[in-house]
Amino acid sequence: TEKRTLLYEGKAKNLYNTDDATIVLAEYKDQATALNGKKKDQIAGKGELNNQITSLIFRELNRRGVATHFIEQISKTEQLNTKVAIIPLEVVVRNVTAGSFSKRFGIAEGIAFPKPIVEFYYKNDDLDDPFINDEHVKFLDIATDDEIAFLKKSALEIDTILTDIFAKIDLTLIDFKLEFGRLPDGSIILADEVSPDTSRLWDADNNHVDKDVYRRDLGDIIPVYQKVLTGLQAEF
Ligand code: C5P
Question: What family classification does the UniProt entry report for this protein (predicted)?
Answer without folding.
Answer: Belongs to the SAICAR synthetase family.
